[in-house]
Write a structure and sequence with these properties.
Helix content is 69%, strand content 0%. It is built from 3 helices and no strands. It is mainly alpha-helical.
Amino acid sequence: MDKTKRLEEIARLYRQAFADYGAVALWNLAPAENPSPGAALAITPALRTHGSMEGRRLAEALERLCRE
């Protein structure tokens, strides 16, 4: 996956995380308008800890994309 597509997918998953788990797992974080890979990695511990199994999978997908 090229860099532009990877960054677009990171942003999409980041926004999905806030849409799906904002009130449950990410309530104390403000979403970034243009999330960087670092911003996406910053939310993964909360998704793993306070999200459902789907939240954990979302965290894993973000981590995989951010570390490519």
